[in-house]
Amino acid sequence: MKVSISWLKEFVDFNISSEELADKLSLGAIGVKEQTQDYLELDLTYNRGDLLSLRGVAREVAAVTGSKLFFSTPKQSDHPWERKDLPENLVRVDDKNLCPVYCVATIEELKIEPSSDEWVKKLKDSGIRSVNNAADVTNLIMLEYGQPMHAFDASRVKDKTIVVRCAENGEKITTLDGKERILDETDLLIADPEKTLGLAGVMGGKDSEVSANTKTILLEAAIFDPAANRQTSKRHGLYSEATKRFQHGLTRTNLLQALGTAIEMYEGLGGKLTAITLTGSLQDEAKTIKLTREKINSLIGIEIPPIEIESSLKKLEFSLAAQDSAWEVTVPYWRLDIQIEEDLIEEVARMYGYDKIPPKELKGELLEKINQNFFNLIYDLRKASAEAGLTEVQTYSFFSSAVLNNLAWDKNNLVKIANPISSETEYLRENLWPNLLEIVDKNLKAGYKDIAIFEIGKTYSPQKGDLPKEDYHLSIALMNGTDNPIQELYQIFESLKNSHPGGVTKDLTDENKYFHPTRFAALEKDGKQVGWIAEIHSRIANKFGIEKRVAVLELKI
Fold this sequence. Notes:
Its EC number is 6.1.1.20. The chain is of the alpha+beta class. It contains 16 helices and 28 strands. The protein has a seven-stranded mixed β-sheet. It has a five-stranded mixed β-sheet with strand order 6-9-12-13-14. It is elongated.
C-alpha cells in the first residue's frame, strides 16, 4: 500500500517528517518498506485490511502521533441519494452468499476527459496511473476508502439491467486486458440479460468499458465473498488493487460512505444522479468483546495501569464500558481483524509500546537435560560411515510392493498401516537392507559401477498393544565389481568399531534363503546377536535386476 504524504495530510493533522512518521508506525507494528518525502509504502500483515485505505492509515497515524482527524463517520441522512426521490435500477442477485451487498447508481450527463493535475498526482504518488476522469474517480475512492468500484458504460448494458450470477461451464468473457477467459460455475459474474459485463470483484469486461463517447455510467459498489473472489482471481491469474481489498473483507458502512463521496465527485464533474439501487443488508453488526485486566497482564507480562489500557484503545476509536476489573469493548466497524480478547490485548501492547516491556526471567525450574548419548552415537556413526567412503541415502519407512514380491515376505510378520495413502505404503519396513537393494538397482541403471551406500533409520516390528516396536538400525550395501565384496564390507565394519556398540562376528547356523550359503555371519555384542553381514543370494539379487555380487550389513544400534 503506497500512501501519498500530501494526500494523507488532508485526513489527519500531523506535522512530523515522513521519516519520523515511518519510525512511529514501525514501532506500532505497522511495517514500512520504503519511505520518501512524497510517499510511504507500507508492509502490511494480511489481517490489517483497514490499512488498505487512506482513511484507515489516517486513523492509525492519529493514534500513534496524537494528531486530530479531519473526518468522521457521516450520518445516513448525509448520503446524496437521501435528499432525492430517485427511481431504482433493475438489479437481480442470484446468490446472496456470494454477493451480500450490491449497489448501483446511474450517473448521466458526464463528459469524459483527462483528470486534473491534482488527481493525477494523487494517483501517481499512490502507484496508480491516470486513465480518465470517470475511471479515476473509482480509483481515488478505492484509495481513500478501501472500497473498490467499477463504472460500466450504461449504453452498453441491455435495458440498464444488472444481473449478478454464477457463470456456466465453458462460458467466455473478454476482460479489460484484452484476454479471453473461459469460465466455470465457481466464477461470479456481473452481466446484463444478454451478455457478461465483468468478473465480479476481479476485472471488468471489454464490452462495457467506459470510452470517450460515454455519457452515462452505471456505478457499481458491492461486497463479494472473499474466499470465492480469491478463488476466481487465482484461477485466472488476475491480481489487482481491487481484488486485494475484496479478499480482505469490506464493511457496509464504509461502502455507503464511499458510494456517496463518489456520486458527489461525479456531480462535481457535471454528472447527475438519476437512479440508485441498494440491495442487501446495509447495516454492520456491532461487535463487543470482554477484556479483563488479568488476561492483559498475564499475556503481556507486566502490570499496565487501567488508565493506560483505556487510553490505548480509545486512541484507536474502540468504545469501552468499565466493569469489575474488566471492560466490555465495542469494536469499530472498520476493524474486521478484531475477533477475540487476544486481538484487543495485542492492540493494547503495541499502543503501550513494545519497547517499554522489559525483559523478564522465566519462572519455574529448568527440566533436567535430556541424555544425548544415543543421539551422539548416531551422529558419530553417521560421520564415521561417511568418512569410510560410504554415501548416505534415505529411503521410505515402508516396503514397496516390489520388495515384498521379490522377497516373498510374510506380511503377517509386518506392521500394516491402518490408513495407507496407497497400496505401495501398506507395510512398514522391518529391516533397511531390502530398500537399499532398490537403491543399488537404480544406481546401476544410472550407469554407476561401484556403489557403497548406508542408511541409519527406524525399523518397525509388531508387538502386543496398539503401537509397534521401533528400533534404530544401520544398514550398508556394497557392490565393488569383485567376486567377494563381503571382504571389503567387513573391513569397513571393522573401521566403524569405535563408533558402533562393538561386537564380534560369528557364523550363522540357521540357513537363510536371502543370503549366499557360505558368505554370511552374525554380529554379536555381550553374547547377543545385534546384526549380521552377508552377501545377497544371486537369485534374490537378480529379482531386483542386479547381475553383480552385492554385500549387505544390518546392525541394530
